């Protein structure tokens, strides 16, 4: 039956095209029907033969000058060929003939936008929305939301979607879109109110529950967001995006095992993705289960072998296990992709220092300093490395460089004091230590960490005790 229908349609359009060619050649007496012109125009338009479609429209309008539908089709083709003013003139005529045709207002909007007449497009749609009901009103509201999106009036996009949901609370397109725009505009509390009203009327709508969860998540009410996602999953247990978002909420609450369980459900329901494997790896990392973390980071890297941060994360799991040689292998892979990334150079320097390759460690720490001269971490690592290897003069020089470039941070005073003590300049060292304790006593552990035996120095112990008493008063 379907084959016969297709064959009949094909035969009909072939006959219509032949009649149209005869008409153009002056061989056809009488007229083609209005509907016939519409079919010819649609045929050429679908074939992307805009010139022929426009020619058919012109013949059709000449024979049926009061046909609103033919005027609209011709206007549509004029817009496609950027003849916007001509299109608007035709659409004005069509509106007089049939003001109930929603396509007139949509095409007028397209023409106004093409002419960069944003205010006219908005005004037209707002007037049209007031005239129409049902699906037509909803379609025009979607059109208006697109106009606001184009001109970056994003709060008004959100407002349009709210209006659509007032008319049609379970409109899927609006429900999908409002989830994004809630997050983008930060209007989570309004979204919560909207979706609560929808759920009161349609308690088994999974998208409304999902959007409610996303809105709670956006304002950091993670427990409530999880509850909403659970309702969505009770309605549709294969709703993988609910599991994704729920996993993120669990991670925010540091409930890593629950997050892993949700992410594993995503893997069951959807095709494998590197971001999901990476997230599972992150959870195991936080649980200090480094072998499991590494397993999932590696699965992620197999799916996305150009992502340097995955190799870096694998390296970090080895570093946490003190397996510095293995960590180096993955850091080298990361640095083949992003050679001067400061975090990679910092980790590489730490591994090399642990393995006794001090010269190369210093090079990598210096790379961090070059990349982020005002950052503290690179200077700290470089100074600590020089101090640990008894390069005291060089350490002192770098402390002075750090103070000049990165600023007079209290940490550098503690390191300056420690270096002066190591250089047997105790009097100067005590003066600097006193300054450091005045400014940031909480950083004392950094000072002691460089050389724990410093606590055998009675003057240091007395100075520390003095500031402890001072703080407790």
Let me know the number of strands.
0
Helix content: over 70%
> What order do the helices and strands follow?
HHHHHHHHHHHHHHHHHHHHHHHHHHH
Structural class: mainly alpha
Biggest sheet features: none
Mean pLDDT: 93
- Could you name the ranges where pLDDT drops below 50 across 5 or more consecutive residues? none
Strand content: under 5%
Q: CA-to-CA gap between the ends? A: 96 Å
Q: State the shape.
A: elongated
In short:
This protein has 473 residues and is an all-alpha fold. It contains 27 helices and no strands.
Looking at this protein, list some descriptive labels.
single chain; 79% helix; 473 residues; mainly alpha; elongated; 0% strand
Secondary-structure blueprint:
Blueprint: H1 2-24, H2 34-46, H3 50-63, H4 68-80, H5 84-97, H6 102-114, H7 118-131, H8 134-150, H9 154-167, H10 172-185, H11 188-201, H12 206-218, H13 222-235, H14 240-252, H15 256-269, H16 274-286, H17 290-303, H18 308-320, H19 324-337, H20 342-354, H21 358-371, H22 376-388, H23 392-405, H24 410-422, H25 426-439, H26 444-450, H27 458-472
Describe this structure in words.
It is a single chain. The protein is built from 27 helices and no strands. It is mostly helical. It has a domain of about 90 residues.
